[in-house]
């Protein structure tokens, strides 16, 4: 046990709580349900230590570290910044007890895109322009225009998810059936994949022509606040 002032605190199975990440309980421990951070963006983690009875311990120094600073860095105050694509473990240490949060960094697909595909059934090609916006969870929405010569000019929506640069989406328009799409994002300027459906089944390439000049703010990344807790092994 440790002594803080005149009160004795048992430090066995001490939890550390991290603010600003939603949480879900898995096997008695808690892990972030939304640990995604867009490259270039930052979010603030806050560690609060509790004793074995659930009382908050104050006045204790918190040490922060990242196991892969090429992916995500963390400063002495718990500010995490995504640097490059990948996953990093951010650790907070309080008096020898650790809490760990997993941070996934990825490039968002936000921006303007152009592409095209051949449509063998009608003997021609189609062009597509899109404007996509990805949120803090990796879900994105987009609007655009499908053009000829094989396609009638028509407004479309393109909605899906970007999960570790694996893109799945649905192309929708008024009238024709929805067309599913699956592909991969190179993290820079290209999304390659294929449409598959009753209307068209063909390979497809999207090229990003512009993107947002600055990453979204930390507040926009988080979207909402919550808590993240993890239980460390017995420390003493």
Polypeptide structure, described:
This protein has 236 residues and is an all-beta fold. The protein contains one helix and 23 strands. The protein has an eight-stranded antiparallel barrel with strand order 15-16-17-18-19-20-21-22. The chain has a four-stranded antiparallel beta sheet with strand order 9-8-3-23, with no helix packed on it. The termini are close together.
List the SSEs and their pairings.
Layout (H helix, E strand, L loop, with lengths): L1 E3 L2 E3 L5 E5 L3 E4 L2 E4 L3 E3 L3 E3 L2 E4 L5 E2 L4 E5 L5 E3 L4 E4 L3 E9 L2 E10 L4 E9 L4 E11 L4 E9 L6 E10 L2 E8 L5 E7 L4 E6 L6 E9 L7 H5 L4 E5 L5
Parallel strand pairs: 6-14
Antiparallel strand pairs: 1-2, 3-8, 3-23, 4-5, 7-12, 8-9, 10-13, 11-12, 13-14, 15-16, 15-22, 16-17, 17-18, 18-19, 19-20, 20-21, 21-22
């Amino acid at each position: 046990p440790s002594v803080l002032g005149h009160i004795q605190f048992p430090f066995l199975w001490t939890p550390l709580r991290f603010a600003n990440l939603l949480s879900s309980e898995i096997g008695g421990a808690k892990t972030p349900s939304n640990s995604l951070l867009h490259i270039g963006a930052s979010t603030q983690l806050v560690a609060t230590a509790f004793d074995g009875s659930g009382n908050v311990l104050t006045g204790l120094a918190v040490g922060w570290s990242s196991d892969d600073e090429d992916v995500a860095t963390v400063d002495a105050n718990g500010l995490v910044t995504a640097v490059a694509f990948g996953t990093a473990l951010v650790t907070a240490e309080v008096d020898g007890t650790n809490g760990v949060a997993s941070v996934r960094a990825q490039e968002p697909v936000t921006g303007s895109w152009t592409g095209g595909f051949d449509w063998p059934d009608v003997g021609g090609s189609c062009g597509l322009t899109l404007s996509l916006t990805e949120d803090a969870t990796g879900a994105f929405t987009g609007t655009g225009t499908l053009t000829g010569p094989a396609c009638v000019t028509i407004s479309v929506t393109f909605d899906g998810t970007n999960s570790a640069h694996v893109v799945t989406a649905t192309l929708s328009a008024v009238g024709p059936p929805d067309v599913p799409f699956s592909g991969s994002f190179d993290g820079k300027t290209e999304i390659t994949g294929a449409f598959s459906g009753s209307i068209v089944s063909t390979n497809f390439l999207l090229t990003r022509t512009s993107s947002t000049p600055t990453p979204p703010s930390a507040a926009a990344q988080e979207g909402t606040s919550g808590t993240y807790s993890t239980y460390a092994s017995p420390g003493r």
